[in-house]
Amino acid sequence: MDSENRLHTDAEHSSTDRPAVSPAVIRRLPRYFRYLRELIREGKLRISSGELSERMGVTASQIRQDLNCFGGFGQQGYGYNVNYLYAKISDLLGVGAGLCAVIVGAGDLGRALVRSSMFEKRGVDVVAMFDVNPDLIGREFGGVKIYDVCELETFCLENAVDMAVLTLPKDQVEPMSERLMTAGIRGLWNFTGKELNAISDQIIVENVHLGDSLMILNYQICRDKPTVTPKEERGETADAQKESLE
Amino acid sequence: MDSENRLHTDAEHSSTDRPAVSPAVIRRLPRYFRYLRELIREGKLRISSGELSERMGVTASQIRQDLNCFGGFGQQGYGYNVNYLYAKISDLLGVGAGLCAVIVGAGDLGRALVRSSMFEKRGVDVVAMFDVNPDLIGREFGGVKIYDVCELETFCLENAVDMAVLTLPKDQVEPMSERLMTAGIRGLWNFTGKELNAISDQIIVENVHLGDSLMILNYQICRDKPTVTPKEERGETADAQKESLE
User: Fold this and answer.
1) pLDDT at residue B17, rounded to an integer
2) How far is B72 from chain A (nearest CA, A)?
């Protein structure tokens, strides 16, 4: 998730009526979106910056700074209107824009994503998956059909697809991006592990590197416990267990 | 991936012989790790900060600042020793520490993760999966067996498991974290979408919110193309296609 450097804001697009929000705030808005949705589920109509601060583990002053740009609806002693703020943030993040996606690569990860509620919750309609495997083509996962990848361009152009989720092998990601660009795709959500830099001004890339997150966890575990027992020194039980799994 | 605030560094642990590296640099190291591995695969022994800068899309001065703490091996006109730097970063990030993990929740995402090469590449040994579903218990995915979740504590204690990957439903994440903590788990890699704040000083949490990344992509697509066609206004072909998928 490393497109920070490329993240421009609406401030540069004076033609829209969206509030001007800095890239750093934009990066934090999806987290507010999640917390606000939780508040709505709980039936909470108003929340003070202090209470939100406690829930989210950030300072109240940070919250006031972040949300200030959405208008003067966080008055002292009155709190934020949860529904209004949720609607404003959702709108800015494109939740109601009717975006439409395809998933390229119907392997384990592609299927896990299509079956999750993640897209629906964020207003993205997944309309097709694509794969090269004849055993998969024609099958459906999560109500979404898998097409032969040779139909990709035609499908995307005919259906005005906005984004492609890349869960294909990493050695195919560059030629695939070129194909998707010619098929009118505007954004790539790239899970392949092969980092795509902006291949063109015409396409936006959001790289996901789950392994980077794993390494940060590794680092923290090892830092706090520098004497982690190497595998070969674990007890007999561990070795016996490992063998029985092989 | 929001543990930035909680990320302390080795500078605070003077008893270790690791270099003192700031939290911001630590967050960037996994990316260097990936690029250095790619260089090793290509058989490249040395690289200048300028060349690495071009590949990674960051300034050469940023690279020199980030890598400076690993010692004076980036001399002018000579470049970095790729293998040495890779070994140093790997060591700092705990790649060789023999960490051992279990996955709690053997659904789509759990299976996608266990079958990937992500853990192996980062020196983490996944030794078991756990689930409550009797149809899954006893099966194997990616060579890893699924156990009944009632065996969790015994297994983790006997096998000195270091971390748990949480891919279970979000309403179960809090009680499960308590169980894992009593089972000696040191770190949680949390994919549930329910943000876990540090439940104790005894356990480290790395939250993954894929949906946040999706929203940033949404934002960028909508920003560049504010006139995204709402679903109901897409052409007949799109509607016909959608119906055939339902």
Assistant:
1) 57
2) 23
* Strand-pair partners of A163: A101, A187
The closest alpha carbon to A207, from B98, B204, B30, B159, belongs to B30
Contact state of A225 with B186 under an 8 Å Cβ cutoff: yes
Are the C-beta atoms of residues A216 and B3 closer than 8 Å to each other? yes
**Concatenated DSSP letters for B101-162?**
EEEE--SHHHHHHHHSSHHHHTT-EEEEEEES-TTTTT-EETTEEEEEGGGHHHHHHHTT--
Taking 50 as the pLDDT cut, the residues of chain A under it are 1-5, 10-16, 228, 230-246
Look at residue B246 and tell me whether its pLDDT is greater than 80.
no
**Cβ distance of A245 and B195 shorter than 8 Å:** no
Nearest to B3 among A7, A8, A216 (CB): A216
The structure tokens 């980062």 sit at B122
Distance CA A175, CA A194 (A): 12
pLDDT value of residue B9: 52
Contact A207, A3 (CB under 8 A): yes
Instruction: Say what the ipTM of the complex is.
Output: 0.84
CB < 8 Å & 24+ apart, contacts of B14-17:
B15/A226, B16/A223, B16/A226
How far off is chain A from B75, nearest CA to CA, in Å?
Answer: 27
Strand partners, A189: A165, A206
pLDDT tens string A44-83 = 999 988 999 999 989 999 998 898 877 655 566 678 899 9
- In chain A, % helix, strand, coil (3-state, to 5) comes to 50, 15, 35
**pLDDT reading at B244 higher than 50:** no
Q: Choosing among B158, B214, B234, B236, which should be mutated to test the A contact, i.e. which has the most A CBs within 10 A? A: B214
Q: C-alpha dihedral over B132, B138, B144, B148, to 10 degrees?
A: 30
HSE-CB at A230 with a 13 A cutoff on CA atoms is 5
Q: How far A243 CA sits from the closest chain B CA (Å)?
A: 10
* A168: nearest Cα among A133, A139, A219: A133
- Residue B77 is predicted with a pLDDT of 66
Q: Phi/psi of residue B129, each to 5°?
A: -120, 155
Backbone angles phi, psi at B43, to 5 degrees: 80, 20
The 8-class DSSP code of residue A229 comes to: P
- The model's pTM is 0.83
Is B34 in contact with A193 (Cβ distance < 8 A)? Answer: yes
User: What are the tens digits of pLDDT across the range A202-232?
Assistant: 899 999 999 999 999 999 999 866 554 544 4
